[in-house]
Amino acid sequence: AERIVVPGGQQFPTLTVEGWDHAVVYEHARLLTSAGFLIAAYELSNAIPVRGITWEGYDLLDSIRDDSFWANVKKKIAEAGGSVPIDLLQPLATQFLRSKLGLPDG
Question: DSSP alpha helices (H): ranges in 4-54?
Fold first, then answer.
């Protein structure tokens, strides 16, 4: 899984993603903020000071935290054409978890 690096010890850490261009990270952070997953501010310098993650953001992260689940989710997305809306990402990951735990489909 791609690793998001948020430097610790700062009141407003700046979001970076190793191996990704800053403009791409900036746009995705803006979209995640707009969708209610991330609490971030945007400065004239194009820095992305992250102030926190919303409840929905933590739910999403929890659903894809395990690398094997994330690999399965990405594989399923690739089979569907390579792109899905973010509101389908968490239910898909939850479906894999329910299956692994032997729980019926919810």
Answer: 22-34
**For residue 78, what are its two tokens?**
């690739």
SS3 27: helix
Would you tell me how many other CB atoms lie within 10 Å of the CB of residue 90? 18
For 50-95, write each residue's pLDDT tens digit.
777 888 888 878 777 778 878 888 888 888 888 888 778 878 877 8
pLDDT in the model for residue 11: 45
Q: Tell me the C-alpha distance between 83 and 22, whole Å.
A: 21
In angstroms, the CA 48 to CA 26 distance is 7
State the amino acid at position 97 in one-letter form: L
Does the model's pTM come out above 0.70? Answer: no
> Tokens standing for 73?
């989710």
From CA 94, how far away is CA 61, in angstroms rounded?
A: 11
What one-letter code names the amino acid at 83? S
Distance CA 49, CA 24 (A): 15
